[in-house]
Design goal:
This protein is of the alpha+beta class. It has a single domain (5-133), classed as 2,3-Dihydroxybiphenyl 1,2-Dioxygenase, domain 1 (Roll). It is built from 3 helices and 8 strands; from the N terminus they run E-H-E-E-E-H-E-H-E-E-E. It has helices spanning 15-25, 66-71, 87-96; strands spanning 5-11, 34-36, 41-47, 52-58, 76-84, 108-109, 115-119, 128-133. Strands 2-3-4-1-5-8-7-6 form an 8-stranded mixed β-sheet. Strand 3 and strand 4 (52-58) form a beta hairpin. The protein is globular. Bound molecules: cobalt (II) ion. Residues 7, 9, 54, 79, 81, 130 line the site of cobalt (II) ion. Cobalt (II) ion is lined by residues 7, 9, 54, 79, 81, 130.
Amino acid sequence: MLGRLNHVAIAVPDLAAACATYRDMLGAELSEPAALPEHGVTVVFIDVGNTKIELLEPLGADSPIAAFLAKNPSGGMHHVCYEVPDIAAARDQLKQKGARVLGNGDLRIGAHGKPVLFLHPKDFNGTLIELEQE
Ligand code: CO
């Protein structure tokens, strides 16, 4: 089921400041910011060759990362995203094995225009996992 690491996501309180840090201190090349109102975040991607880093800033009043940033005010690692060849089959298998899929279990379109889902961190060693269709 498990495929490549697609990205590691870092929640940040100030996307412009985080971009400046990655660009000016680490010499990273950044994507343009993309607002994803359905997911309550604005994202910037950094291609690091073997995977990507996703910087996430809250967007809107009920952003899913607002609580995370309240607990981690300077930001922090938020989730890892793995690719899977068949996300609907992966969801069904995972639910059958007792894993909790966040939300109502419907697949949503993620930052790359492909279906994604999120798995409950309590079922995966305290790590929020995103699965993305390959
Ligand atoms: Co992600």
